[in-house]
Amino acid sequence: MASIPYTLSKQQESAFITEAIEAWTKAWEELEQSRIQAWIERIVDHLEEVRKLEGGNHYREGRRRV
Fold first, then answer.
1. CB of 29 within 8 A of CB of 20?
2. What is the DSSP code (8-state) at residue 57?
3. Is the pLDDT of residue 62 over 80?
4. Which residue among 6, 30, 36, 56 sits deepest, i.e. has the most Cβ atoms within 10 Å of its Cβ?
5. How far apart are CA 43 and CA 38, in angstroms?
6. What is the model's pLDDT at position 18?
7. What is the Cα–Cα distance from 23 to 45, expressed in whole angstroms?
Protein backbone atom coordinates (compact mmCIF):
# COMPACT_ATOMS: atom_id res chain seq x y z
CA MET A 1 0.00 0.00 0.00
CA ALA A 2 1.33 3.40 -0.89
CA SER A 3 2.15 5.78 1.91
CA ILE A 4 0.34 9.11 1.90
CA PRO A 5 2.51 12.22 1.85
CA TYR A 6 1.29 15.15 3.94
CA THR A 7 0.55 17.28 0.90
CA LEU A 8 -0.66 16.11 -2.48
CA SER A 9 -1.14 17.96 -5.72
CA LYS A 10 -4.59 17.59 -7.27
CA GLN A 11 -3.10 15.16 -9.80
CA GLN A 12 -1.43 13.09 -7.05
CA GLU A 13 -4.62 13.11 -5.01
CA SER A 14 -6.63 11.91 -7.99
CA ALA A 15 -4.12 9.14 -8.72
CA PHE A 16 -4.11 8.06 -5.07
CA ILE A 17 -7.92 7.93 -4.94
CA THR A 18 -8.04 5.96 -8.19
CA GLU A 19 -5.47 3.48 -6.84
CA ALA A 20 -7.40 3.11 -3.58
CA ILE A 21 -10.69 2.50 -5.38
CA GLU A 22 -9.09 -0.09 -7.65
CA ALA A 23 -7.51 -1.89 -4.67
CA TRP A 24 -10.82 -1.88 -2.75
CA THR A 25 -12.76 -3.13 -5.79
CA LYS A 26 -10.27 -5.95 -6.38
CA ALA A 27 -10.40 -7.00 -2.73
CA TRP A 28 -14.22 -6.93 -2.75
CA GLU A 29 -14.40 -9.04 -5.92
CA GLU A 30 -12.03 -11.61 -4.39
CA LEU A 31 -13.99 -11.82 -1.14
CA GLU A 32 -15.74 -15.15 -0.74
CA GLN A 33 -19.52 -14.99 -0.65
CA SER A 34 -19.55 -17.29 2.37
CA ARG A 35 -17.69 -14.66 4.43
CA ILE A 36 -20.14 -11.94 3.41
CA GLN A 37 -23.08 -14.22 4.24
CA ALA A 38 -21.59 -14.98 7.68
CA TRP A 39 -21.34 -11.24 8.41
CA ILE A 40 -24.96 -10.71 7.38
CA GLU A 41 -26.19 -13.65 9.47
CA ARG A 42 -24.46 -12.28 12.58
CA ILE A 43 -26.22 -8.91 12.32
CA VAL A 44 -29.34 -10.35 14.01
CA ASP A 45 -27.25 -11.66 16.92
CA HIS A 46 -25.57 -8.28 17.35
CA LEU A 47 -28.88 -6.42 17.31
CA GLU A 48 -30.35 -8.80 19.89
CA GLU A 49 -27.33 -8.26 22.15
CA VAL A 50 -27.64 -4.46 21.90
CA ARG A 51 -31.36 -4.70 22.73
CA LYS A 52 -30.59 -6.95 25.70
CA LEU A 53 -28.16 -4.32 26.99
CA GLU A 54 -30.80 -1.64 26.38
CA GLY A 55 -28.51 0.23 24.01
CA GLY A 56 -25.90 0.92 26.66
CA ASN A 57 -22.17 1.15 26.13
CA HIS A 58 -21.59 -2.38 27.41
CA TYR A 59 -21.86 -4.08 24.04
CA ARG A 60 -18.58 -5.57 22.92
CA GLU A 61 -18.22 -5.92 19.17
CA GLY A 62 -16.51 -8.82 17.51
CA ARG A 63 -16.98 -12.53 17.17
CA ARG A 64 -18.07 -14.56 20.11
CA ARG A 65 -15.47 -17.00 21.29
CA VAL A 66 -16.90 -20.50 21.41
1. no
2. T
3. no
4. 36
5. 9
6. 95
7. 31
